[in-house]
Every structure is written in structure tokens, then in C-alpha cells.
Amino acid sequence: MSAVTVRVPAKVNVQLSVGGRRPDGFHDLATVFLAVGLYDHVTAAPADGLRITAAGRDVARVPLDATNLAARAAVALAKRYGVEPDVHLHIDKDIPVAGGMAGGSADAAGALVACDALWGLGAPREELLALCAELGSDVPFSLVGGAALGTGRGEILTPLEVGGEFRWVFAVAEGGLSTPDVYRECDRLRRAGGGSDLAADLAAPGADPALVAALREGSAPALSAALSNDLQAASVSLRPALAGTLAAGLAAGALAALVSGSGPTCAFLAPSEAAATALAAAFPAGAYPALSPAPGATLL
Ligand code: ATP
């Protein structure tokens, strides 16, 4: 087969409830993922051996060796089916790197779908989802897209209904934030506040019924009232300038503002297309309008 291209969406967590730290180091989560129309494209072409190239935004920060999540996905799929991981993966990046929008996870899901097609494996959806979960907590959602409740580490997905379109503006920040660092800061802030950061001491988080209803109704005002991110205080603690970014978006007409995932990208819910354009103009250093929900990994 000749080259195949898969389009993969970014995500924003409209709810990110973080439980205590588990003995395995992960945190129990209840998170509501929403896929947004900001995409990477992963192209798989025949090659001798495994080769990774990348282009687009932040490309200098994308590793081009075996640590690239797309490379890891190709190797995992090849191993599972007993084939050689012979593929040239080219990643065209539009999703900010280390921005809390699951860019690497999207590329992993894209590589699985692209290599499955290139190698003619016909892997069942459940098999691809199981490989996604092994690759990372956010990877299964990148495959399915739309909206979903994620529990466990975020990898156990329950699809959610979305009754309308939501309009976002994402303000990107200089430099990324490491997701493990942000979780460590969240734990530290909990202990510093006199509480515990351990799963044994904290109630397991659950979905917020008001947020789930807002998505089902497609109501931007209701969604803006229900947005929550337990990692936001930790992201702002590590990157105090984010407080100013969030305030600037609200001053420029956003219905609501929150840090996307572990940050540092900030997400603003806009009441209209005109408001989104005005919001984006408030961030000359880089802001990207996008609609949600968006479909998951799609073979073009
Ligand atoms: P999440 O929201 O899932 O926590 P993120 O969007 O904050 O993730 P990524 O863009 O996935 O972060 O990048 C995190 C790190 O992963 C990067 O700093 C980079 O070194 C590494 N990485 C590995 N593969 C990729 C990839 N395909 N694209 C971008 N970064 C990658």
C-alpha cells in the first residue's frame, strides 16, 4: 500500500478531578474529555526500518527517535501482530507540544490507525483501544474523539452525548509544562494545605452531573459555569504568568477560562464566532480558535 494519512484531534478536559496518589504513582481521575478541532496529521509510508520526521508548530521540541509516542505506537502494534515496524511516520503538528492538549497522545493514536492501514492488519477496534491504553492515559480518547468520561488513570472511557457545538480559543504559552511535574505540584499543594495527597485518604472522584447535562444540552453558559480543573492551581503555581493569561481572556469577552489539562495552554469558551475572533486578537503571541466536539482519529 502507498502512504496513508490520519488526522487526530487535540483535547481539552472540561472536568479534571484528581483523586489521591495511588501506590503505583498514578492518580485516580474523573475527567471529561472533549475533542477539539485542532489537528495533527500522521502519515505512514513504506520504508525499510522505522523513521520519524516532523514539521509544523513547535517541531524543534518533538523527539525524532524511539521515544516519540508515534514511534512507540508503531513498535507496539508491530510487536502485537508479529510484523516488522517498517514505516516512515511523518507528523505534521498543529497541536502545541507539552501544552496539556494531548498532542503526543494524538500522534500515538494516529500512528496506530495509519500503520494498521499501511500494513493491512485489520486490527479490531478493541485491540487498538487496548494498545492505546498501554501507550498512555490520554491515548484511547484521541482514538475515539467526541466527548467521554475518563476514569481510572483516564483511560477507561464512557462516551458522552454532546447536544451542540462549543467554540473555544486556545492561548498557547512559550515553553511547555511537564505533566508529571504538575501532578507533583498538585500533591505538594495538598500537603502544604494540611491535607493528604494519598488515594487511601481521599474519596474517589466522579463525574459532575451539571457538566454532563451542560454538554448534553449543548449549552455554553451552563458549560462555562461547570468547568473545573483540579490541576489548575498547580499549573499556575509553577507558571504564575498563567493567572494573567486567564484574566486577560475573561476581560476580552470569554464566558469562562481554564487551564487545559496540565497546561500551560489556556482554554477560553467563547459565546459567538465574533467573540472568538476578538478573543484570539487579545493574544498576539498565539491563540487558536477551534470548535468542539471533533471526531477521533480519522483515516483521510
Ligand atoms: P497531555 O495533555 O497528554 O499531558 P501534553 O499535550 O501536555 O500531554 P505532549 O505534547 O504530548 O504533552 O508532549 C509531552 C512530551 O512528550 C514532549 O515534551 C515531548 O518530549 C514528548 N513527545 C513524545 N512524542 C511526541 C509527539 N509525537 N509530539 C509531541 N511531543 C512528543
Automatic annotation (TrEMBL):
Q: Does the keyword ATP-binding apply?
A: yes
Keyword Transferase included in the entry's annotation? yes
The pathway entry for this protein reads as: Isoprenoid biosynthesis; isopentenyl diphosphate biosynthesis via DXP pathway; isopentenyl diphosphate from 1-deoxy-D-xylulose 5-phosphate: step 3/6
Reaction(s) this enzyme catalyzes, per UniProt: 4-CDP-2-C-methyl-D-erythritol + ATP = 4-CDP-2-C-methyl-D-erythritol 2-phosphate + ADP + H(+)
Q: What class of enzyme is it?
A: transferase
EC code:
2.7.1.148
- What range(s) does the GHMP kinase N-terminal domain occupy? 68-146
Q: What keywords were assigned to this record?
A: ATP-binding, Isoprene biosynthesis, Kinase, Nucleotide-binding, Transferase
- Where does the GHMP kinase C-terminal domain start and stop, copy by copy? 212-285
Domain of life, per UniProt, equals Bacteria
Query: Annotated Gene Ontology MF terms?
Result: 4-(cytidine 5'-diphospho)-2-C-methyl-D-erythritol kinase activity; ATP binding
Where does the record place the catalytic residues?
11, 138
The entry's ATP-binding residues are 96-106
Could you tell me the Gene Ontology terms of the biological process aspect for this record? isopentenyl diphosphate biosynthetic process, methylerythritol 4-phosphate pathway; terpenoid biosynthetic process
Annotated NCBIfam families: ispE, PRK03188.1
| Function field | Catalyzes the phosphorylation of the position 2 hydroxy group of 4-diphosphocytidyl-2C-methyl-D-erythritol.
Q: Which protein family is it in?
A: Belongs to the GHMP kinase family. IspE subfamily.
Task: Name it.
Answer: 4-diphosphocytidyl-2-C-methyl-D-erythritol kinase
Native organism is: Actinacidiphila paucisporea
Provide the gene name from the record.
ispE
